Amino acid sequence: MITSEEIKRRLWDGANELRGSMDASRYKDYMLGLMFYKFLSDKTLAAFKMLITKDEITESALIANYYQSMAASGPQLESILQSTLGYYVLPQHLYQTWINDINQGHFEVQKVIDSLNHFERSIANSKDADDFKHLFSNSTLDLTDTALGSNLHERSKNIKALILLFADLDMVALQKGDVLGDAYEYLIGQFAMESGKKAGEFYTPRQVSEVMAQIAAKTSNIRSIYDPTVGSGSLLLTVRKHLTKEVQQSLTYYGQEKNTATYNLARMNLLLHEVKPHKMTIRNGDTLTHDWPEDPQHPSEGVQFDAVVMNPPYSVKNWNRAGLKVSDPRFELAGVLPPDSKGDFAFLLHGLFHLGQTGTMAIVLPHGILFRGAAEGEIRKRLLEKNYIDTVIGLPSNLFTNTGIPVVILVLKKNRHIADPVLIIDASNTFIKVGKQNVLQEKDIAKIVDTYVSRQEQAGYSHLAHRQEIIANDYNLNIPRYIESIDNDIAHDVEGHLLGGIPQQNLEQLTVIHTTTPDLLQAALAPVRPQYFVLNTTINELSDKILNDSRIIEQSAQLAQQTQAYIDQYWAQIIAINDPEQIHPLMESMLDDIKILLTKFNHIDIYDGYQIIAEIWQNALLHDSEIIAATDFYTAGRSRIPNMVAKGSGTKKRVEQDGFISSLMPSELIASELFADDLAHIDHNKQQIQALDGELADLIESAKVEDSIEYEALYESLKKNEDDEPLDGFDNKKLKEELKNRAKDSESYALLKKVDRLINQKSTLSKQIKADEHALKQAVQERILHLTDQEIDTLMYKKWFGNTIALLGELIEKPIKAELKTLQMLNERYQDTLTSIDNEIEQLEAELQAMMQELVVTQ
C-alpha cells in the first residue's frame, strides 16, 4: 500500500525533476491539471465497472470491455455515465489510452489536446457543466507552450514524463480517506513555497488556514460557506475538515476567483475532495467589481452564508475601477467607500455583507487595518459601533511567501450583544523559524483557538476590550494599545549592587519554587540585612535538592501514571483502526485529551504537551494508521515492502531496489531490539577500527617531524600531493617497498611492520563489519515476516511512545529549572558589590606600583 506521505514525496520529487527551469506557479497548472484528468478517467472506469460487474477485473480487460460497450451502445452508455458522474471520458480519450500510446511508442501531444477538448464538449449540456467548464482551456493548460519545450519533440518528451508520473496511481482508491485530496493540497502548498510572491494568488499557508477554519467551524448549524477570494479552495476545504461527517454531507460551498487558472484549480481541488458537483458553486469573476452571489428576490441583501472565510490580496490599489458608489449595498453600512489606494476594507465589507445573522466570518488582512485613519478609520468606527468585530488576532510577520508584513485575522459576527467586549489576541511572538519563513506550530494554533473559544484574558497574550476602552483609544485597535508585552528582564536593584544581596522582591518572582518547595528555597538563603539575601549553597546543590524532593517526585510519578493510562487507552484504539475516516477524529480526540490531562498539574504549559503529541502524529501515526486501516495491525507489522533507493546522478540517475523494509518499523529499531548482540559485536569492531585509526594517525604525525625515528622510518611511505608534501595517510605500495629495503632487525623495519600490521588489521575488521552488517540486514528483513504479536507490540510502542512519558515528565521540571537559572543570574548579578570592586581596584593599583618600582632602567 502507498500512503499519502509517500505519494506526496514521490509526486513532489517528480515535479522538481521534470519542471526544469519552468516557473513553479506555471508548472503547477500542468501537473495538477493532468493529475485531475487521471482522476476523471479513473472515476469513469470505476463507474463503468459498477455497471457491468462486481467481480475483480484487470484494468486492461475493463478498458477493452469499455471500448466494446461504447461501440455497441454509445449514446445510452454516455447518458448513464453522465447522469451518474456528471461527466464521462470516452475510451479513446482515457488517461490510460495515453499511457498505452506511450508504451507502444506512438504517443502524440495532439491526442492529449483532443482528449481535453472532447471532455469540454462532452459536459457542455450537463447540469453540472459550470463545475467542469473550461477546466482544461488553453489559458490554463496550453500544451503548445514553448515553456514545456522549445520544439514538438521536447514538449512531447516532457509531457510523456509528466503523464507517467501518475500512471500507477488509482485515483478512486486514493480518494477514500482524503488521501488524494491531501496529496493535491500538499502539491499546491509546495508549489506556493516555490512560487514566492506569486503564491499569494492561490494559496493561504496551512497554519493560517487552520486558525481561520477552526474558528469558522465553531459556528453552530453551519450549512453554507463562502470564500469571495477562493484561490485554490484550501480555506473552504480546511473548514470542511473540522466539521462532522453529517455536516459535511449537507454543506454547500461558494467561491469566486478572479484568476482563471486559479479558479480552475479550486474546482479541481473541491472535486478531488469528494465535494459533489451540485454542492459547489465556484465562479470566475472579480469579487469587488461584481457582487456575487446575488439574490434576485432580495437585491439589497445578497445571499447570506453561515460562514465566510477570506484571504484577499493585501492593500489592492485602484480597486474601484468600476466606479462603485457608497450606495452599493455592500458599503452602505460603512457610510464611506474604502480608499482607492487600499482595498482591504472593501473585501471585508463584501464578506460581511454576505454573512448570515448567526454566522461567523474570518478574514486575514495587513496589520494596518487596525489603526489607519481617514476613511478606513471611519469604517472601523462604524464596525465597532455596530459591535460586529468579535476578535482581533495578531499573527507573526513573515508567515506568507509573498509578503513579510505582519497580518491579523479579524473575526466578525452580526449577532453580538452591544456590550460584548472585543477579544484581542497577540500571537505575534509564538512561532518557530523554518528556513526563511516563520511558522506557527500546532501548539500555537491550538492556543489561539482555545483562547478564542474560552475568551479568557492572559497577561501579555489576550485581552477583552470593552466599549469604553475602545472609545478612549479613539477606535484604534492597534494591539499594543491593549496588550502590553511581558518584559522577562528583571530590573536591577541599586542597593543590591552597592551593598550586595538578592532583593526580596526578585525572589518573590520565583513563583513556581515558592509554590512547590518554599522551605528548600528559604533554607538556601541567608539574610545579609532586611529584604536582602545571599545563597548559602551552590545552585547545583539547590537544584539537586529541589528536583529530587519527594513532592516533585510524587508529582512526576502521578503524571507518569496518568500518561501511561492515556497512552494505553489510545494504543488500543490506534491498533484497532480499520477505516481511514477514523484517523483524523482519533487524532483530534487524543490531542484534546492531553490538554485535559495536563490541566490537572500546576505550572505545566499544556501546549508544550500538546505539541509533543501532535509531533507523534505528524512524524509517525498519520503514516502508520493509514497502513493499519488498509489491513490490520499485526498483518501490517509483519509486512515488508521493497526498499527503493536513488543511485547515480545526472543522466545515470535511477531508482533501484535495495532489499526490503518493514511497512511500519524502522530497520534500526528492529535491529536494536531483537539483534542487540549482533549490533554490539559490530559496534565493538568499529571501536577497534577507531583505535587503529588513532594509532595510525599518531604515527603519521610523528613521521612528519624531522629528526625523529618515525620520520626516518616512515616518511617515504606517506602519501604525497603534487608538490611532494605529505598527506594524512600511508601509501601501501611504498610501504611494501620500504619493508623490502630495510634490515629486518632495524628499528625502522619494526615501525614499518607495525604500520603494515595496523593497516591489515583495519582492512580485516572493515571486511568483517561489512559482512556482519550485510548479514544483519538480511536477518532483519527475514525477521519482519516472522515477528510475533508481542514483538510487534513492543517495537511499535517504542516507536510511537517510547519517550513520551519522559518528555511529558520534563514539563514539570522545565519551569523549575527556568527559575533556578534566574536565581543563578541574580546571585551572580549582586555578588560583586561596589565596595568589593573598589577594594579590588585598590589592590590592583598597589600591585602595579610595586611592579613599577622594581623596574630597572639600563643604558
UniProtKB/TrEMBL annotation:
Entries under PROSITE patterns matching the protein: N6_MTASE (PS00092)
EC number(s) from the headed UniProt entry: 2.1.1.72
Limits of the DNA methylase adenine-specific domain: 176-487
Record-annotated N6 adenine-specific DNA methyltransferase N-terminal domain positions: 7-163
Keywords: Coiled coil, Methyltransferase, Restriction system, S-adenosyl-L-methionine, Transferase
Coiled coil (UniProt feature): 820-854
Record Gene3D superfamilies: 1.20.1260.30, Vaccinia Virus protein VP39 (3.40.50.150)
GO biological process: DNA restriction-modification system; methylation
This protein's record includes keyword S-adenosyl-L-methionine: yes
Highest rank taxon of the organism: Bacteria
Catalytic activity: a 2'-deoxyadenosine in DNA + S-adenosyl-L-methionine = an N(6)-methyl-2'-deoxyadenosine in DNA + S-adenosyl-L-homocysteine + H(+)
One Pfam family named in its UniProt record: HsdM_N
Record-linked InterPro entries: D12N6_MeTrfase_N, DNA_Adenine_Mtase, DNA_methylase_A-5, DNA_methylase_N6_adenine_CS, Restrct_endonuc_T1M, SAM-dependent_MTases_sf, T1MK-like_N_sf
Molecular function terms, GO-annotated: DNA binding; N-methyltransferase activity; site-specific DNA-methyltransferase (adenine-specific) activity
Annotated PANTHER family: SITE-SPECIFIC DNA-METHYLTRANSFERASE (ADENINE-SPECIFIC), SLR6095 PROTEIN
Family as reported in the entry's similarity comment: Belongs to the N(4)/N(6)-methyltransferase family.
Name of protein: site-specific DNA-methyltransferase (adenine-specific)
